[in-house]
Please model this.
Amino acid sequence: MTQVQEQDFQPVVGREKRLADARALVEAIENEDSSSEAQLIGELTAAYSGNIFDEVGRMTREVHDTLKSFAEDERLGALAEDEMPDARDRLRYVITLTEQAATRTLTVTEEATPTAEQIVERSQRLKGELAKVAASEADNARLGGVVESMTRYLDSTTRCGERLKGQFTEIMMAQEFQDLSGQLLMRVIDLLEQLEEKLVGLLQITAPVRSAKAEDGKSAPAERSEDGVGPQLPGAGDNVVKNQDDVDDLLASLGF
Amino acid sequence: MDRNMKILVVDDFSTMRRIIKNLLKELGFTNLEEADDGQTALPLLRQGNFDFLVTDWNMPGMTGIDLLRAVRADPNLASLPVLMVTAEAKREQIVLAAQEGVNGYIVKPFNGATLKEKIEKIFERVES
Model:
């Protein structure tokens, strides 16, 4: 809708007449002629108000035309009835896909972790057995040398196994993204749902003949911390803690 | 701290339940059960002799904060230690959780070391 410009407020009465009225008004005020003063103020305002009524009339027509074109716009109907639900389905599918990927990764790390543990445990056990053999054959220098290099190898294998365990844990923790991204997507899906409802409502008002699906008309709930509002985006403001240290500081200030 | 204690992990995302359970297993806890929101968690808690509750906040059905309130309001569960592991990061939410009687609060994303530290702190307090 076009904004009302200041130049639209041109008075409907000519400049000469307005100047004459204004001079007469000054004169009336000077002469303390209150009845002329009131009449002249009325005339001067009338010079403008005619235009205001025109403007209101024009705006009303514009609103009417806009609503009419809104109702006739097939695109909006398609948007509300097909495309927005479709967008929601796509987002839900993204959640499903990330969940599948995360689940797959978790399954592999869950299987791989015991393998790494076995490597550690078996290397340590073998190292112990070799030490016993070396001790019972202490006079065999060649055997002693072999046991020593094998022990070094088994120690490095143990370290590798430990490192693998830590890396599998890291991979597992990285799957946390699925929860966080899923929560964010669910909020966008909610928003789409609300928009869709509003759009359908508006289309129903402007074109009652149009078939509408969403008729339950439940109002959009405001965001309530009580219900949980989901992960915060980076730079969400002072009201949001940035990391676990912030959480701990806040709780400490509450006596935790 | 008793490594055999019975722990209930509540989160609506199966991925997160699995991650928390794996972390707890790494810390030596093996007696673990799970639920996907407050509504399914509460009956389990009421009949299950749980020693510890780890819960998310934002869940359909019954939220974690309502679950916490229900636990504190139930004479048999009132003293159950509760740790929140959640993406909810507003100061007012953390304050609210503290007021409702939470024993620890971890904001996602988090890591195993944080989980270990908070659990140890909770049971240090509970046992002292």
